[in-house]
Specification:
Strand content: over 45%
Structural class: mainly beta
Order of helices and strands: EEHHEEEEEEEEEEEEEEEEEEEEEEEEE
Number of helices: 2
Distance between the termini: 20 Å
Shape: globular
Length: 301
């Protein structure tokens, strides 16, 4: 009975054939997904290093921050063109300001954030550098989003709210350390991952808890985003290689389900950090996932 689909071979396979796939075809690192998945892998490409963060701009343009790189990578989904933008520091994470502009957190070689760069993606240049000093959490990624002319930056168990000049407006004590967070503009809610407890925590902009979602299948959650319907999409790393799941949680936090699975028989990673990212292309209704140095895009069946 077919239970997996191989993207590279365009074949459906039973469990035994999937296990023996690489031996039978003399291939490595093919990606499989369950035939029960609600979204289908329709594109896959490699980048030059592991992915710290990735955001989707209108028009099918992906903006990617690579590990240990001082350049932003842009990739056009429509024509597959790639460009690099020098930003003056090692890229960590990205927040979208508007259709053409992003903010990039820049770090030093160790554990300190040096500054943020405001980057015009269309003009391929840095507009401004703003000095910001934050201590990186142990997982070396600082979640950040932008709304109402302010940046919300999470470091350890506090969200720092500042304007675009770097002036701090206030701090929100959380009581837990989010490994990622995102903002639902329509509902004015912040969604956070507490991976130490395998939880999704929804809070308002003052830090008050709206709901907490837990599920026995929600293991090792790392990154999250929001789709067009307000559902939260959570990327869970099933192993330190290429295996992952995407869980979709309802906006009220009352239900969740797995909609995407990714499986590699010969899972591997390059630098040992096992980095990952997820974003959502609103115009094309696609989920975009970065695992190590590979980008996958999924569409509804």
């Amino acid at each position: 009975m077919p239970v997996y689909r191989c993207y590279e071979c365009s074949n459906v396979l039973c469990n035994d054939c999937c296990i023996n796939h690489d031996k039978l075809t003399n291939t490595e690192y093919h990606i499989f997904q369950s035939t029960n998945d609600k979204m289908l892998l329709n594109n896959k490409f490699e980048v030059s290093n592991e992915i710290n963060d990735m955001k989707a701009l209108p028009g099918g343009l992906l903006v990617i921050a690579l590990y240990d790189s001082d350049k932003l990578l842009t990739y056009s989904v429509s024509d597959k063109q790639r460009n690099e933008i020098s930003v003056g520091g090692l890229t960590n994470n990205i927040a979208i300001l508007d259709r053409n502009t992003v903010v990039v957190m820049l770090t030093g070689k160790y554990i300190v954030v040096d500054s943020i760069a405001i980057v015009d993606i269309r003009q391929k240049q840095v507009i401004q550098h703003v000095d910001v000093t934050l201590v990186l959490p142990t997982y070396s990624y600082i979640p950040m989003f932008y709304t109402d002319d302010q940046l919300y930056i999470s470091s350890r168990s506090v969200i720092t709210v500042m304007d675009m000049s770097g002036t701090i407006d206030r701090k929100i004590d959380l009581g837990f350390r989010p490994t990622d967070m995102c903002y639902d503009t329509k509902a004015a809610r912040i969604y956070c991952i507490d991976d130490s407890e395998n939880k999704l925590i929804c809070i308002d902009r003052d830090g008050n808890t709206i709901f907490t979602f837990t599920d026995t299948g929600l293991t090792n959650p790392k990154r999250l985003t929001i789709d067009n319907e307000g559902y939260v999409l959570i990327l869970c790393r099933i192993s330190y290689g290429g295996n992952f799941e995407i869980h979709r949680v309802s906006p009220d936090g009352k239900s969740g389900e797995v909609i995407i699975t990714g499986k590699q028989l010969n899972s591997y990673f390059t630098s040992g950090k096992a980095l990952s990212s997820i974003c959502f292309q609103e115009e094309s209704d696609e989920v975009v996932i970065g695992i190590n140095g590979t980008v996958y895009t999924y569409k509804k069946k």
